[in-house]
Amino acid sequence: MASAGGYAFRGDVDELRRGMLVGRPAEVVERLLALHDVYPFAEAVFWARLPGVPLGLTAENLERVAAEVAPALARS
Question: What is the pTM of this model?
Answer without folding.
Answer: 0.72
